Amino acid sequence: MTNDVIIQFKNVTKQYDNDPPVLGDVSFEIERGKFYTLLGPSGCGKTTILRLIAGFTEPSIGEIYFNNKNINHVPANKRQVNTVFQDYALFPHLNVFENVAFGLRIKKLKNAEITAKVKEALSFVNLAGYENREIREMSGGQKQRVAIARAIVNEPEVILLDEPLSALDLKLRTEMQYELRELQRRLGITFIFVTHDQEEALAMSDEIFVINEGKIQQSGTPTDIYDEPINRFVADFIGESNIVKGKMMNDYLVEFVGREFECVDKGFNENETVEIVIRPEDLEITALDRGKLQVKVDSQLFRGVHYEICCYDKDGNEWLVHSTKKAAVDTEIGLYFDPEAIHVMRLGETEEEFDRRLETYVDGASHHGK
Ligand SMILES: Nc1ncnc2c1ncn2[C@@H]1O[C@H](COP(=O)(O)OP(=O)(O)O)[C@@H](O)[C@H]1O
Ligand SMILES: [Mg+2]
């Protein structure tokens, strides 16, 4: 473990009663000072991971380390972590100042010190001058800022944010995304942010953990995850994708929709069944005979920057195309794509299996895309 690792999960399983595990054998590392996002559908285990980090619950199996020390049994109030909850959890009978001051009063700091720290925290979230406001006089976005000020005033090493923007309307939500990201950079504190919104995750994060059914499916930078999804779940959850069944003929040669295509992937078994992902923006509309695929245009929508064109091939597969060119509904067109646009995925492979497979390649080169 390097010095930069602040939190480590080692084979953590969390199970309630005899139900199937909520988290199954999860391992990961969080590095100091970065913005992390836990991304996945409702019920996949995101909040459970935050609760384990915060100390509101303990693992059934496995270990959690904080600054290289096992914290499995360290109570929540002894951890260098503060949580911003989805519903803000502010105290309605206290004004803005006292909401932010609450933790400092418990720590019995002197009044002058409390005043200085609360003022600083409020100015960090652009709420200087709002000290005496009642919580009920604050808008949704302002309450959100109070909740963040209340977390940062304690100067924790890590701030956990559980879907903090989901109650806000779209415009305010986008503004807060910028503000939060900027705040994290200025403070240099590690943020672990939870969302089920893939665009939000791509826009904000240094690192994303894509989670499904209590397992980390893939972790990496937004571009890693967008460009090189590891399995169908990730490809489908992150951005729009065309996904079809295929067969790996040899290294660099894959078959789908009844034809063989040059690709950049290798290291699969001969004739292995695989899944193919091509992003809508990697498909180019051409004349019928110049296309690598021939499809019929089913519908078309103008999306402001591009047309979203929905087509079907002869096997009935749907192909979504993002193009600045128009296509006429009910006509047949060709679709062209580069070998690099084809992403080949092994069926149901998780990141750990993918990494193990990479290690078995003699030359150590990645088979997966670039
Ligand atoms: N205290 C609990 N007892 C039993 N099951 C729980 C408890 N807390 C969470 N779960 C279950 O764990 C799963 C994951 O929950 P959670 O971590 O809250 O998901 P997410 O935050 O990703 O929506 C859900 O199926 C939920 O019902
Ligand atoms: Mg949750």
Automatic annotation (TrEMBL):
InterPro entries per record: AAA+_ATPase, ABC_SmlMolc_Importer, ABC_transporter-like_ATP-bd, ABC_transporter-like_CS, Mo/tungstate-bd_C_term_dom, P-loop_NTPase, PotA-like, PotA_ATP-bd
Q: Which reaction does it catalyse?
A: ATP + H2O + polyamine-[polyamine-binding protein]Side 1 = ADP + phosphate + polyamineSide 2 + [polyamine-binding protein]Side 1
Q: What is its EC number?
A: 7.6.2.11
* One Pfam family from the record: ABC_tran
Q: Which domain of life is it from?
A: Bacteria
Membership in a protein family: Belongs to the ABC transporter superfamily. Spermidine/putrescine importer (TC 3.A.1.11.1) family.
What does the UniProt record say this protein does? Answer: Part of the ABC transporter complex PotABCD involved in spermidine/putrescine import. Responsible for energy coupling to the transport system.
Write the protein's name. Spermidine/putrescine import ATP-binding protein PotA
Q: What is the organism field in this record? A: Neobacillus massiliamazoniensis
Tell me the gene name: potA
